[in-house]
Amino acid sequence: MEEKRQGEVGIIDKWLKKHLLMYMAATRHPMILSIRDGSINISCFKTWLGQDYLFVRALVPFVASVLIKAWNDSDDSNTDVEVILSGLASLKDEISWFQNEASNWGVQLSHIVAHKATGDYCRFLESLMLPEVEFTISITAYWAIEVVYQDAFTHCLEDDAKTPPELQETCQRWGNDEFGQYCQSLKKIANRRLEKCSDDLLVKAEATFLRVLEHEVQFWNMSAMVEPEDLASK
Ligand SMILES: Cc1ncc(CN)c(N)n1
C-alpha cells in the first residue's frame, strides 16, 4: 500500500466530510447548544452527570482492551501503547472529577440506574472489547468517542458562548487544548491503521464510526429529557 503523501486528506477527514450531518448531530446537539447559550435545564445536566459517570466507568475496560490490542497487534506498538496508556491513566482523574462534581450538585452516584441509552452504549463498548475485534476498529471507535466530547465542549468555550459560569469547568474538562492534542494523537494512529487496512475492514471501521455517533446522539437525547419527578417539583 502506498504511503500517504504530505497534505493529502486522510480517511477520517473524508468520513467527517461525508457524514457531516451525523457528526454535527452528535457535536452540536440541542443539549450542547443549550449549554452554550445558557438555557440549559440544570436537571438535564444532573441526569447527564450521573449517566456519564456510569459510561466513563465502562470506558475503563474498553480503553484497556484497546491498549492490549495495540500491544499485540500494532505496527508501531511503542508509540501507540504510550498514547493509549495516557488516556487510560487520565480516566482515573475523570472518575474522581465526576465524584466530586456529583457531590457539589447533590447527585447521589450510588443511586444512579443506567438509562436505556447508557446501557446500550455500554453494551456496544463491551462488543468492541471482544478479542476478535481488530485494533483498527477499536482505535477508530476510541478516537470517535473522545472527539465528540472534545468538539462539542470546545464549542461551548468559544468567545461568543454564553455558557453559565458553573458549567465552565465541565466544558474545560473536554474543551481544553491538551485534550484536543490527545484526540489528534488518536486520530493519527487511527488514520495510519485505516490507510493500511483491507477494504473489508475499512467498511467495518466506517460503520463503527457511525455507530459511535448514533450512540452519542442517543446519549444526549436521554440527558436532555426532563425526568417526570423534576417536572412535578416545578
Ligand atoms: C457519552 C460519552 N462520550 C464520550 C465521553 C468522553 N470520554 C464521555 N465522557 N461520555
TrEMBL record:
Q: Does the keyword tRNA-binding apply?
A: no
Q: Which GO terms describe its cellular component?
A: cytosol
Q: Which residues form the Thiaminase-2/PQQC domain?
A: 18-223
Q: Which reaction does it catalyse?
A: N-formyl-4-amino-5-aminomethyl-2-methylpyrimidine + H2O = 4-amino-5-aminomethyl-2-methylpyrimidine + formate; 4-amino-5-aminomethyl-2-methylpyrimidine + H2O = 4-amino-5-hydroxymethyl-2-methylpyrimidine + NH4(+)
Keyword list, A-Z: Disulfide bond, Hydrolase, Thiamine biosynthesis
**Biological process (GO), any one:** thiamine biosynthetic process
Q: Which pathway or pathways does this protein act in?
A: Cofactor biosynthesis; thiamine diphosphate biosynthesis
A single GO molecular function term of this UniProt record: thiaminase activity
EC code: 3.5.99.2
| Matching PANTHER family | BIFUNCTIONAL TENA-E PROTEIN (PTHR43198:SF5), BIFUNCTIONAL TH2 PROTEIN (PTHR43198)
Q: Which family does it belong to?
A: Belongs to the thiaminase-2 family.
Protein's name according to its UniProt entry: aminopyrimidine aminohydrolase
Organism of provenance: Cephalotus follicularis
